[in-house]
Amino acid sequence: MTSVIEAAPLTNSLTAGKLPKRSSLWILLASWAVTAAFFVVLNLAGAVDGFNVVGTVFFGTVLYCIAIYVFSRAVEGSRKATDRLMTALVTAAFVIALLPLISIIYTTVVNGLPAFLTPTFFTSSQRNIVGEGGGVLHAIMGTLLITGMATLISVPIGLLTALYLVEYGRGKLARAITFFVDVMTGIPSIVAGLFAFALFALLFDDPGIRFGFGGAIALSVLMIPVVVRSSEEMLKLVPNELREAAYALGVPKWLTIVKVVLPTSIAGIVTGIMLSIARVIGETAPLLIIAGFTASMNYDLFSERMMTLPVFVYNQYASQGADAQAYVDRAWAGALTLILIVMLLNLIARIIAKIFSPKFGR
């Protein structure tokens, strides 16, 4: 007696209540293709100027959300269709959030790369330059000096304040400090610049005072609350068991903080500090008020005006000379330089956080 093995019946995924594999990807690509064709037709008809890549991705993603819901509801039912719609909306939100960033980076690179690649852009200043040529060396040096001084001022104050709030602060004083830190977090940057200008104008009795150290003070007003908040949150993440174990061994509190608390939270603290630097390095208004602008090199924070990259970009765009295109190109190149510096700071923050993470420490 022989047994007969019957083959499993073939089923079509469309009739089995399930969309084919990779259907979401193909529907997304089809949606982008349809939207792209629509913009091509508009371009040929003269309704729009050029092909709109951002519009294609945006409206194509919106069309994908509608299409995936319709197809899934027709094949898989309302429950699965709702699940696919929510997934599509989350994906669409991610794509839409990236569009401004990608658009800014693309526009800055395209417009700033010609001047960025000139031989003198990083080796000279704008002294005696009225047309093409010149460079951004004086602005880069001013940015590094002012931001570095602001960091030297802000990090000790911010870190010690965070240590007080977490390790020692109790009662009304701690609550008052927390309240004022929250208030300082929301201070407009131009107010910080006006504060620094008024402070030094009164101290030196000079209503026209402009110098780099004043810009560092203005930036430190903006940096301190960020450093305090980020450091405070990192210090709170240190388990209390580590502190209690040190106290049980007879270690004083200050030594526990230095040897246990700070090494455990150093990765997060350094990351917060680097992000606070990236947050203030692009400020224009406070530096325009107190640091001013100049076309010459200045290495002295305590004397004369000092140029910075954000003010350089503003000045090149707002005060165009006879060759306006050269000024605009330098403004875009300065913006590209600033973006690269901020990206480098964020990369350094990630590397430092990985190196000093507790799992890699002793």
Notable traits:
mainly alpha; MetI-like fold; 362 residues
Task: Give an account of the 3D structure.
It is found in: Cell membrane. This is Phosphate transport system permease protein PstA. Keywords: Cell membrane, Membrane, Phosphate transport, Transmembrane, Transmembrane helix, Transport. One of its GO terms (molecular function) is phosphate transmembrane transporter activity. The model has no long low-confidence stretch (mean pLDDT 86). The protein is flat and about 70 Å long. With 362 residues, it is mainly alpha-helical. The chain folds into two domains: 23-116, no CATH class; 137-360, MetI-like fold (Orthogonal Bundle). Helix 6 (189-204) crosses helix 7, helix 7 crosses helix 9 and helix 8 (240-248) runs antiparallel to helix 9. It has twelve helices and no strands.
Helix/strand structural class: mainly alpha
Please give the largest β-sheet.
none
Helix tally equals 12
- Supply the CATH superfamily name of the largest domain: MetI-like
Oligomer: single chain
Domain count, please report it.
2
Order of helices and strands: HHHHHHHHHHHH
Instruction: Tell me the CATH topology of the largest domain.
Output: MetI-like fold
Please tally the β strands and state the result: 0
CATH structural class of the largest domain: Mainly Alpha
How far apart, in Å, are the first and last alpha carbons?
73 Å
Shape: flat
Helix content: over 70%
- Share of β-strand residues: under 5%
Query: Rg from C-alpha positions?
Result: 29 Å
Q: Are there runs of 5+ residues with pLDDT below 50, and where? A: none
Mean pLDDT: 86
